[in-house]
Amino acid sequence: MLVLTRKENESIIIGNSVKITIIRCEDGKVKLGIEAPDDVKIHREEVLNMVKEENKLAASAKNRNMEQWKNIKL
Amino acid sequence: MLIKTKQFGEIEIDMNQIIKFPNGILGFESLKRYTLFTLEEEPKIKCLQCIDDENVAFYTIIPWDFFSDYEINISDEELDVIHANSVEQLIILNTLTIYDDIRYTTSNLLAPIVINADTLEGVQIVLKEDNYSTRHYIFSGQRGEA
């Protein structure tokens, strides 16, 4: 992993089109400004992990009792 | 070809019913081939059954059957994964998480599955985090985010 030290208002450039600026750094939190083309997806890592966990839960579910479905107004 | 399913025994499918997910599905990245069929008991629910691992199957819905104002934004990059160039080609599905009491069934509106019906390729996309979560109740009475 590349480790860089930056100060507030300094930036790093990734590739030709992504720029990340340190907006503010205080109380153990870093506020980042990210400039990237629309087609570059940016997600908090924990959101992707949440989707993975939900997928695993969804895939593990048994079809329970299909009779139950008929009793519910969809 | 004959494939094993998680809950419906063996079923016969044609080669043109195999949907390839080049990137897999999040959390199941190594599994690339699925097939899709509608449940006889409940036509609004479709089963996305993995061909490479019979134990992996997702119950899914077409979101607008349950959430009429659902909106998604798909990037060109994501459309490229499934070689799509028109919305008419697309089938949008959202997975269900089913609990013992099915009244509490939720759907993952944050990460829809997008299939190109022409090329039979699929991708799961993650929307911007502001509008949707991974758990929305699908039944009236429990509507809203779980």
Describe this structure in words.
The complex is a heterodimer of chains A (74) and B (146). By secondary structure, chain A is of the alpha+beta class. Helices cover 28% and strands 27% of the residues of chain A. Chain A contains 2 helices and 3 strands. Chain A has helices at residues 45-60, 66-70; strands spanning 11-14, 18-26, 29-35. A 3-stranded antiparallel β-sheet of chain A has the order 1-2-3, with no helix packed on it. In chain A, a hairpin with a 3-residue loop joins β1 and β2 (18-26). The termini of chain A are far apart. The mean pLDDT of chain A is 87. Chain B has 146 residues and is mostly beta strands. Chain B contains 1 helix and 12 strands, in the order ββββββαββββββ. In chain B, a hairpin with an 8-residue loop joins β7 and β8. Chain B starts with a strand and ends with a strand. The relative contact order of chain B is 0.17.
List keywords for this structure.
heterodimer; A: 74 residues; alpha+beta; three-stranded antiparallel β-sheet; elongated; B: 146 residues; mainly beta; two-stranded antiparallel sheet
